[in-house]
Design goal:
Radius of gyration: 20 Å
Order of helices and strands: EEEEEHH
Strand content: 15-25%
InterPro entries: YlxR (IPR037465), YlxR-like_sf (IPR035931), YlxR_dom (IPR007393)
Protein name: YlxR domain-containing protein
Strand order of the largest sheet: 4-3-5
Number of helices: 2
Number of strands: 5
Pfam families: YlxR
Largest sheet: 3 strands, antiparallel
Helix content: 10-25%
């Protein structure tokens, strides 16, 4: 008896983490949002690894940076957060996915 196997399925795409903007409530890739962290009760806009409670705001949408839209998430600190977001430099457009090294110096796949 001859059986036909189904065609091989293509490998799934790499997982892209999604987050929700606290101002407009749109779900977007994490790389398209700016993360703010709350440390000791104060919301900060910082670069790199950030510890603490986090909130995300659209990086490329000045409409989301208005303090009236940020009140729900940041309360009385919304004007300070809006000022920090407006003062930040515009992000570079990332048209390429983040690539990870495939092999270490010793030929292993570990980092």
């Amino acid at each position: 008896m001859l059986t036909v196997s189904p065609a091989p399925t293509p490998a799934p795409d790499r997982h892209t983490p999604e987050r929700t903007c606290v101002a407009c409530r749109r779900k977007r890739p994490q790389s398209a949002l700016t993360r703010l962290t709350r440390v000791d009760g104060v919301w900060n806009l910082s670069v790199g690894y950030r510890a603490g409670r986090g909130a995300y705001v659209c990086s490329d949408s000045p409409d989301c940076w208005q303090d009236r839209r940020l009140r729900r998430a940041f309360g009385a600190q919304a004007p300070q957060v809006a000022a920090a977001l407006t003062a930040q430099p515009q992000p570079l457009q990332q048209n390429h996915p983040r690539t990870l090294p495939t092999q270490g110096r010793d030929g292993s796949h570990r980092r």
